[in-house]
Amino acid sequence: MSPTKSKRKGEKIEPKYRVVPGPEAFLPPAAASMGVTLPDQGQGLVEGEVIREEEAIEAAARKLLSAKVPTIFPGPLVLWNWSEDSPEMARATKYLADAVPARIIPMPDYRPKYPRVYPEVEINPNHPNLTIWHNKIDVCLFVGVHCHQANIALKIIRGGSPCYTIAMCAFSGDDDANITIRDVTAQTMRRLADAVLRLKREGAGPS
Q: Which domain holds residue 87?
């Protein structure tokens, strides 16, 4: 073992960074800068730990069912009929919302809403905590939100609120969420909804 990798006796080992709900800091660090890596295909992240996708789906389902105010934030990729897949993703998102049941607050665009934000009807990516605080949301799920806006909003939520975040990502996942699942399709959303329904039959629910 090289000297750079050896540990002196009594040397303190820093604990691994975990992506847990906040409030963490006024400006929380990007998870990637703290050593969190994105999952490979067939995997997901739960609080910064890489696990199998099925386990991540199960964890997300349990979090949604344990919430007092579970809320889904669909973005433009779900709300706009921009591709052949969009209508089916919208139907799958509604299926999940009905299964939980969860509130739906849309994120139709990313333009700042000034001078007034209406957090009861729409999330403003530039001020997501207003929506979280106003509605007392303890678990939220992002779906169909472009990566650059999801990164910003998820960090703000983690920095200033105790809300547990779940990001369903069509690409490589979002390491700034407490739970993220990658390569998400309408079928993935239905699998999550089916996991919710199965857990409900088994007696899972708010504590």
A: 31-201
In a domain, 207, yes or no: no
Is 3 a residue whose pLDDT tops 70? no
How do residues 103-138 score in pLDDT, each as one tens digit?
Answer: 999 999 888 888 888 999 999 988 899 999 999 999
| DSSP three-state, residue 50 | strand
φ and ψ at 104, to 5 degrees?
A: -115, 125
Give counts: helices (H), strands (E), the chain. 6, 7
Give the Cα separation of 168 and 77 in Å (integer): 12
Q: Collect all residues with Cβ–Cβ distance below 8 Å to 157 and sequence separation of at least 6.
A: 22, 128, 129, 132, 140, 163, 165
Does position 15 have pLDDT exceeding 90, yes or no? no
Q: Which two tokens stand for residue 101?
A: 């049941």
Give the count of domains, the chain.
1
For residue 92, tell me if it sits in a domain: yes
The burial class, CB within 10 Å (0-12 / 13-18 / 19+), for 21 is: middle
Q: What percent of the chain has pLDDT over 70?
A: 92
C-alpha 127/C-alpha 122 separation (Å) is: 11
- The closest alpha carbon to 126, from 161, 163, 153, 164, belongs to 153
Spatial neighbors of 10 by CB under 8 A, at least 6 apart, are none
CB–CB of 72/111 below 8 Å? no
